């Protein structure tokens, strides 16, 4: 029979406090999401009030710091109502962090929602049966954000039956898709790029160049994709001028019609609210965080009185009510302290980035950007790399030369011919300039780009050129060739 032994084992385990967990979550949030979260906290915590006092005569709400003073003078709430972990010191929960401009209100709309609503509205003007309208509505809901239908007809028939309980046929779904393809924006409901472009051409006035463009896309799409223009001209008996006119027609078509319903919706959906503002005045870089303020939170007087009653009352119900209020106050204190730590972390990180890239922030010259990775800023600030990553994610800064995501300022480095480290962004800029300035009748190959960058002092391998081309969305030389 095996013996049972008892022993002690020491194990080291890290456990995040509620404050740390909340701080991590807040650091990741961009300013719009943060403001929304603050409103949710105020709505969820009945104890907390942030509305200003209407007059001096009315009973005044109590600040959290005043509640803490009462705790200290009359015995702690922990002693009266039970133990509660609390390692946050006493402070006045107010930070004056307003910028010069008033706090803006932001209305952001979903492009997908407005796109779908517009199609459904157009569907309402069609003379269709209720069954046909249901099928068409289901198809509209199946479109991707860019306006394409990337599901086959048979799958839609099955989904209509199993998910919507609607019996239909492939012919009927195809018929309703044709109806949707007549809607604005032109090209919506296409199943591939070729169909999308052809739908748009069919809507245009039938000029010779439009007719030729339809022939090219209908009969020679693969050759067109691969930019084999001489082959297309020979097969369709087009002159060089006619082919140039075809390319001009196609160049003005929209390959992604889904986001073009309403520019006002689209603009707002793409709206960026900077977390930081950087001004350059009298030779000095001035950083501010004008878009968010930690509100002054107070305890609603009604709940303050509940706490007072619980302190002196012998009633168990009064003590339980006071304990509930205490928990809500602790929650508010953790939240405000997390907001403070978020603001301090963001500001320290942004100042470190500005100091590191000082020359760039003075004039916005991209060639002044130094190689910089998350570790560099982590070492300067003393924060963990994961913290820097959370700060950088989804945050933007407004400068005197444009608005940029913080990720923009980070890049790895390579050595130039003189042994100096230069930013990969500087090399990509040089690569882009070479491609923009090349002879489009005879575009530069990757080997020629390597030689061209070497002549500028950049030592780059051919595979690196291919990688940078992909990142810059630059096609291969063959696909850049023009007539």
* Share in β-strands: 5-15%
Shape: flat
Work out the number of β strands.
9
Strand order of the largest sheet: 4-3-6-7
Q: Number of folding domains?
A: 4
Distance between the termini: 90 Å
- Helical content stands at 40-55%
> What class would the helix/strand composition place it in?
alpha+beta
Total of helices: 23
Quaternary state of the chains: single chain
Average predicted local confidence, pLDDT: 77
Main pleated-sheet profile: 4 strands, mixed
Rg over CA atoms, rounded to whole Å, is: 32 Å
Overview of the molecule:
- With 483 residues, the protein is an alpha+beta fold.
- The protein has four domains: 16-106 and 272-410, no CATH class; 108-185, no CATH class; 190-253; 413-480, Orthogonal Bundle (Arc Repressor Mutant, subunit A).
- 53% of the residues lie in helices and 6% in strands.
- The protein is built from 23 helices and nine strands.
- It has helices spanning 18-28, 31-44, 64-74, 77-81, 111-124, 130-141, 153-162, 170-180, 193-202, 208-219, 221-225, 229-236, 240-251, 263-269, 301-312, 316-356, 358-363, 374-381, 385-392, 424-436, 446-455, 462-471, 477-480; strands spanning 48-49, 62-63, 276-281, 284-288, 298-299, 396-399, 402-405, 413-415, 421-423.
- It has a four-stranded mixed beta sheet with strand order 4-3-6-7. It has a three-stranded antiparallel beta sheet with strand order 1-5-2.
- Strand 6 and strand 7 (402-405) form a beta hairpin.
- The longest helix is centred in the C-terminal third of the chain and has 41 residues, at 316-356.
- The termini are far apart.
């Amino acid at each position: 029979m095996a013996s049972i032994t008892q022993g002690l084992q020491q194990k080291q385990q890290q456990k995040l406090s509620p404050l740390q967990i909340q701080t991590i979550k807040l650091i990741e949030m961009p300013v719009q999401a943060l403001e929304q979260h603050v409103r949710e906290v105020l709505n969820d915590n009945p104890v907390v009030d942030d509305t200003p006092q209407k007059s001096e005569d009315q009973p005044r709400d109590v600040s959290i710091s005043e509640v803490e003073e009462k705790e200290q003078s009359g015995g702690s709430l922990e002693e009266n109502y039970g133990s509660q972990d609390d390692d946050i010191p006493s402070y006045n929960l107010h930070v004056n962090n307003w910028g010069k401009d008033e706090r803006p209100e932001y209305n952001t709309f979903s492009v997908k929602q407005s796109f779908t609503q517009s199609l459904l509205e157009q569907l309402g003007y069609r003379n269709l049966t209720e069954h046909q309208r249901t099928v068409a509505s289901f198809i509209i809901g199946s479109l991707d954000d860019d306006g394409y239908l990337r599901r086959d007809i048979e799958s839609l028939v099955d989904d209509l039956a199993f998910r919507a309980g609607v019996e239909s046929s492939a012919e009927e779904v195809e018929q309703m898709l044709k109806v949707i393809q007549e809607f604005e924006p032109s090209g919506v409901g296409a199943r591939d790029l070729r169909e999308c472009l052809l739908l748009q051409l069919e809507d245009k006035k039938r000029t010779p160049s439009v007719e030729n463009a339809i022939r090219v896309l209908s009969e020679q799409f693969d050759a067109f994709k691969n930019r084999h223009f001489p082959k297309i001209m020979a097969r369709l008996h087009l002159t060089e001028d006619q082919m140039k006119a075809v390319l001009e027609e196609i160049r003005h078509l929209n390959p992604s019609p889904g986001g073009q319903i309403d520019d006002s919706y689209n603009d707002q959906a793409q709206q960026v609210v900077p977390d930081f503002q950087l001004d350059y005045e009298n030779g000095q870089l001035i950083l501010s965080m004008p878009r968010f303020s930690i509100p002054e939170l107070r305890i609603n007087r009604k709940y303050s009185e509940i706490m007072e009653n619980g302190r002196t009352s012998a009633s168990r119900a009064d003590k339980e009510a006071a304990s509930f209020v205490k928990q809500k106050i602790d929650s508010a204190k953790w939240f405000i302290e997390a907001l403070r730590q978020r603001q301090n972390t963001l500001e320290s990180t942004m100042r470190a980035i500005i100091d590191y890239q000082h020359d760039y922030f003075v004039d916005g010259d991209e060639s002044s950007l130094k190689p910089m990775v998350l570790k560099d800023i982590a070492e300067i600030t003393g924060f963990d790399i994961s913290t820097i990553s959370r700060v950088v994610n989804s945050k933007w800064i407004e400068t005197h030369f444009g608005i940029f995501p913080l990720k923009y300022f980070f890049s790895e480095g390579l050595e130039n011919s003189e042994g100096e480290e230069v930013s990969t962004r500087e090399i990509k800029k040089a690569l882009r300039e070479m491609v923009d300035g090349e002879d489009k009748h005879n575009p530069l190959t990757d080997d020629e780009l390597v030689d061209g960058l070497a002549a500028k002092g950049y030592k780059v391998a051919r595979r690196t050129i291919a990688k940078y081309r992909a990142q810059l969305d630059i096609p291969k030389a063959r696909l850049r060739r023009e007539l």
